[in-house]
Amino acid sequence: MTCVGQDGYANAVQNTIAAFRAKQHPTIVQAYDAGTADLMMSGEFYAVSKMMADFNIEIDWANYFPGISNYYSSSKGELFSMPFNSSTPMMYFNVADLKEAGIDTPPATWEAFETAIKALKAAGQDCAYAYSPEPWIDLEQFSMAHGIPIASNNNGYDGLDSEYLYNTTLHVKHMENIKRWYDENLLEIRTTQGGLNSRDSFAKGECSFYLGSIAGHATVGKLVDGAFDWDVAMIPVYEGTERKNTVVGGASLWVLSGKSDDEYRGAAEYLKFLATPESEEYWSTNTGYIPVTKTGFDALMAKGFYDNAPYKGREIALKSLTYTEPGPLTRGIRLGCFIQARSEWSNEVQAALQGNKTMQEALDTAVARSNDVLNKFARTYRGKQLP
User: Fold this and answer.
1) 3-class DSSP state for residue 123?
2) Nearest alpha-carbon partner for 142 in 114, 102, 118, 178
3) pLDDT of residue 7
């Protein structure tokens, strides 16, 4: 097996499409969540559940956490791609900073979060919240946790004739609050382009809070290196909200079409190997990613894996993913060209944060542009349905 890096998730999806045209595509591609609908509608894949059955490899697909497997399954429950590096967002916090500000427990609501960052500033902390605009957290996971739609048709699952709606939901209030916190110096925008990203700003002890993937847990631990006490909690929700499950981030493994039986047998054996509890333990030990199966997670719990540093806290990601059973608005997103839609959101939110327009205007523009792209996607597959 030869592994070839593509310098990022978006490039992996785009390069795979180009490779298909040149008939040079790989047998397996690691594609992130945002590319799911595009790969599904292409039809150029070998569904993993079918491939495993064809090669008489028995996998208990019900063993996969629904919050993970639903994202990569058809409407009939057939798993199209193999869940692999899976994550969900967490709120990272500096325990000592919070105690110094008189805060004993991490905020569970956004109202309590605002109170906390105000208390941190009053206690002399220069950077209470390291913030980086991120649609995966601010839009997608925020909407999932609150049980509100990102788009019509249950976030695209019920038809290609979908439209984005997030400029009409609680998401607007939240982004307006973020803009206000920025204007009031309650948060600092920390990006790589600015010199130090939000994760590293937190890990260096400069900022007391940041929201990021559980996948960064291992990196944060190495960067902190015992310099201060820190922990993670589920991302906050607004008061009066009945919290819902978050969904999987990261990527899955797609087996592509047009390969030989020998190549498919090799792919099937490789995915069988990844599905073992031993492989999940190795992956969870050496990265911040979480187990994708109940058996894998239970095995780690039985060993006391999460009892102590550096792994303590990662189990909270599973709690967030399984907080409720996935419903129509919390099972995932089925929107074509979603990579571009994320970019539209990011560009417009940054413009609003810079004061070039109101947040409502920014979100209206992002929705209008994203709907144009979504309409083109629907026209491309006119007469077809999502699987």
Assistant:
1) coil
2) 178
3) 57
Enumerate residues 6+ apart whose C-beta is below 8 A from 7. Answer: none
The span from the CA of 377 to the CA of 162, in Å, is: 10
Residues 327-386: tens digit of each pLDDT: 999 999 999 999 999 999 999 999 999 999 999 999 999 999 999 999 999 999 998 888
DSSP state of 60: -
Q: What share of the chain is helix, strand, coil (3-state, %, to 5)?
A: 50, 15, 35
- Residue 326 confidence (pLDDT): 93
Cα angle: 55, vertex 57, 58; to 5 degrees: 145
Residue burial 51-88, b: 16+ Cβ < 10 Å; e: rest: bbeeeeeebeeeebbbbbbbbbbeeeeebbbbbbbbbb
Cβ pair 122, 325 in contact under 8 A: no
Q: What is the pLDDT of residue 38?
A: 85
Positions in the chain whose pLDDT score sits under 70 = 1-10, 12-13, 16-17, 19
Quick one: tokens of 107?
A: 């905020």
Do 59 and 275 form a contact (C-beta atoms < 8 A)? Answer: yes
Residue type, 161: D
Q: Which of these, 123, 117, 127, 130, lies nearest to 100 by C-alpha position? A: 123
Q: What is the pLDDT of residue 193?
A: 85
Question: Exposed, middle or buried by CB within 10 Å (0-12, 13-18, 19+), for 26?
Answer: buried
**What CA–CA distance (Å, rounded) separates 257 from 290?**
29
For residue 77, the one-letter residue type is G
One-letter identity of residue 194: G
State the alpha helices, DSSP H only, in 244-353.
Answer: 261-274, 277-286, 294-302, 315-321, 338-353
Quote the pTM value.
0.93
Q: Give the pLDDT confidence score for residue 5 in this predicted structure.
A: 62
